[in-house]
Amino acid sequence: MSEPRMTARPGKSPRAMTSLVEDDGLNDFRTRQLMQQSESAERRRRDLVEQSSDLRTPTARILIWERLHQTRLPRSPDHGLVPVIAAATRLSEAEVRHEQRLRFEVDVGK
């Protein structure tokens, strides 16, 4: 990317021009930050909808829940998060426990 060109303008000192260039850079940064925050919020909103969508499998819903909450499905069927995950994903606790069995029986068999 090329450097901003500093040309003399009537009534504008080089110092004022430098300040304008810096302000533009700051505005660009702020604009990018706002766009990233907006995109992140939209992605989270979509994920929240999809984590409880009947169009998604129980496995997919739980994976989305894990990504949103940055944690893994607990191993214990009696863990306190099982009912929380069930409610957030609109699955039954039995379906969440079934997913636990599918995942963790494979680990045990290794």
Describe this structure in words.
With 110 residues, the chain is an all-alpha fold. It has one domain (14-108). 67% of the residues lie in helices and 0% in strands. The chain contains four helices and no strands.
Principal-axes shape call: elongated
Strand proportion: under 5%
When the domains are counted, the total is 1
Largest sheet data:
none
How many individual helices?
Answer: 4
Determine the structural class based on helices, strands and strand pairing. mainly alpha
Report a brief summary of the structure.
By secondary structure, the protein is mostly helical. Helices cover 67% and strands 0% of the residues. It has one domain (14-108).
Short key terms for the protein model shown above:
mainly alpha; 67% helix; 4 helices
Task: Give the helix/strand layout.
Blueprint: H1 14-50, H2 58-69, H3 81-89, H4 93-108
